[in-house]
Design a protein that fits this description.
The two termini are 29 Å apart. This protein is mostly helical. It has a domain of 80 residues. It is rod-shaped, with a radius of gyration of 22 Å. The chain has 4 helices and no strands.
């Protein structure tokens, strides 16, 4: 988020349709959305895990905790956050491509090529 804020402060464009601006806005929106969804989904996962553990402890069972239930919860959790991760990965790629295009136009291509060879 702080990098996106820096782009708004220092990027020399007043055009709201500029590809760097639009890609950074999209990325920041996705980060915010991911933080909200991740928090909700993580809380759901932890609550479910706590229920399994509490149930196991209150039944005073000598059997081990059912790992398959925990694994199933983790799979559901990962499936629920995967669309957010995919969207954010795509947005990061678009943001980086937009910045690369901008810096290449300014003549920074040679410098970036030198760094990429190391």
């Amino acid at each position: 988020m702080s990098s996106g804020t820096r782009v708004f402060l220092f990027y020399p464009s007043n055009n709201p349709n500029d590809v760097v601006i639009t890609s950074s806005i999209k990325l920041m929106e996705l980060i915010f959305s991911f933080q909200q969804n991740f928090s909700k989904e993580f809380t759901n996962l932890m609550n479910s895990l706590n229920e399994i553990i509490l149930s196991h402890l209150t039944n005073k069972s000598s059997l081990p905790i059912d790992i398959s239930k925990i694994n199933a919860l983790i799979v559901v959790y990962l499936n629920n956050i995967k669309p957010n991760i995919d969207a954010m990965s795509k947005a990061i790629g678009q943001y980086i491509a937009a910045l690369n295009t901008y810096f290449n136009k300014l003549g920074y291509k040679q410098l970036s090529d030198q760094f990429s060879q190391k």
